[in-house]
Request: fold
Amino acid sequence: MSDRNGRNWVLWVLFVLALFSFFPTSARANTIYFQGFEGADPPGLPAGCSVEPLWESKGNWATRRFGWSPYGVLPHSGSNMAYFNSGSTSIGSAARLVLDGPLDFRGYSEITLTLWVYHDNQRETFDLINLQVSTDGGENWEYLGEDILRYSTSVGWEEVSRDLSAYAGREKVLIGIRGLSYFGNDIHVDDITVFTGGEIDDPLDDSDSSSGCSTGILNPLFLLLLAPLGLLVRKSR
Ligand SMILES: [Ca+2]
Reply:
C-alpha cells in the first residue's frame, strides 16, 4: 500500500467514525416488555392480560379501535388501545388492568416503565389511573408515583414515565393499571413499555424531552475526530 493510499484509508475510517458520532442514537437501550394492544380482538384484552374488579364495582378495562367518551379518540399506535370505563360507570368504581407477565427483572439495575395516556378537557372530574407493581403474584400492589388524571387543558396523548429500578433483581414482577371513576370520560392508554438502561440521548441535550428526538447539536466526539482529519488533509497536500 502506498503512502497516499494509506492516508486515504485512514481518512475514510475517520470520516465514517465522525458520521457515527454525529448521529446520536436515541433508541431505548433494551426493551423487555411492550404492550400496544394490537394482538387483541376488541373489546377483548390481549392474551395474558386480565381485569381485577376492585370493591366489587362495575369498573372495567377493555380495548377499542375508536373512542367516543370523549368522542374521536384514536389509538396512539396501530389500530387498538385499552381504556377504563370511567365515562359510563358510577363514581368510586375501580378496576385494575393486570398486564401479561410476570416480568423477570433479574440481571438489570436500571428499569423504566412508560405508558401513553390520553387527556381531554371535557367534564372536569377526577377520573384517574395509577401505575402499580406487585411482586407477590398480585396479592399486594404498590403505587408508582402520583395519580395520572384524565382531565387536562392539554388535550392529546402524553407519555408518562415511572422508575422501576427499585424492583431490579426481582424475579416475578406484575404491572397493573388501576382505574378510578369519577363519571367523567373514559381513560385511554396505549403503548406500555418496560426498558432497561438509560435512554441514550445526546449528552448536550439537557431538555426534558420525552420524545427522544435529537437536537442535532454536535457531539464533542465529532469535533475531536475532525482535528486529526484536518491535519491529515494538510499533510496530504
Ligand atoms: Ca395500539
